[in-house]
Amino acid sequence: MSEEPVTDAEKTQQPRGLSVQVTVTDGIRVVTVVGEIDYHTGEQLRQALDVCDTARPRLVIDMRQVTFMDSSGINILIAAHQAITEAGGWLRLAGPAGPVLRALQIVGVDALIDCRLTLREALSP
């Protein structure tokens, strides 16, 4: 029994997901996000952004590989920003682009949360 190749139409019907990886660079938590942030995938990001037990948290979300974000993602970012600010820390977004950057601009999140072009810029003081 041989397998037939997957067509482009079948690829587009496959569910999309989200990958979230957390690392630490120079004492800054870096949350690297790949894929789509929406109602179905947002909880994974929300958990990675939880800083309830951290004094003066410093956090960068690497968004260079985020391909889509709906209002659920925007709400997650705003809630994280508020929690981190209340704890005396800061949150920065690195590399949002295309439709994701446009969504942030339309609702004014880019004016609320510091957006940097590159991860290197987001990690610098």
UniProtKB/TrEMBL annotation:
GO terms assigned for molecular function: anti-sigma factor antagonist activity
Q: Which PROSITE patterns match?
A: STAS
- Residues forming the STAS domain are 18-125
One Pfam family from the UniProt entry? STAS
Gene3D superfamilies given for it? STAS domain (3.30.750.24)
SUPFAM superfamilies noted in UniProt: SpoIIaa-like
Protein name in UniProt? Anti-sigma factor antagonist
Q: Name the source organism.
A: Streptomyces swartbergensis
